[in-house]
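Sequence in, structure out. Go.
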Amino acid sequence: MNVPDFDGKFNTFNTYAEGKMVLDSLRALKNDPALGLTDSGIALYGYSGGGSGSIRAAELRASYAPDVRLLGTTIGGTPGDLVAQARYATRAEPGLTGTSNFTMWLGFASLAREYPDVFDPADLLTTEGQQIIKDIQSRCYATIALTGVYRPISAYYQPGKSLESSLEILRVLQDNSLGKYLPDTPILWWHGLWDELIPPSVVLPTVQSYWERGADLRFYTVPVPEHIVNAVTGWPPAVAWTSAVLRGLPPGPKFKADYQPLPPGFPGS
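Output:
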């Protein structure tokens, strides 16, 4: 079992650098003569942030690390369109969906490290907002969540400023959204019907793009609410499928079993 540090020195978050770091770790594994895994097949698994690194590795494998023999990738709870995710997570949301606000603080803090000229707290945020970013730079995601829930970053914009007022910010988010490349190996992907952190609306268009472009895809929605609950619910089929492909069994037929159960305007839709 290989657990890569796909955050890297910049504590990157939902960028294609994650995929490269995952693939670099697999190359290190393959090239360690003591392990004897030079020609072994590999399967990737990740949920939420871990799914981000895994699926980006799958997208980049053919061009960045064709020597990595990838048998399949299983992910869940991962955003596809980062612009749509940012729009959702930066505004005030009612009920449990308001907890999503912390993801944008987490994202801004990491992107400020990787793209300091674009995500500049001093240019975009008020003094209080800048202090929050400074404070969370050295903290883990769990304590950042406690700081950022029900605290939309949009309340800390300087007058006339926003994420969408900067074309460069939008470009970075668009460039790192999923779907820039098409995985050339089998994919199993699931998402919750109601995910308070990552709504289906920021995932389904990417899934549709994968499908229309011919990806070897199996996608299904979990009929239970809440992000962490979906991680547990999706685990058994993910493990079963991953075990099968690692044992040399076929990945099974492609399918896309998604539907939108929430009406437009419903929190988390």
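Check: The CA atoms of residues 6 and 17 lie 8 Å apart. The longest strand covers residues 217-225.
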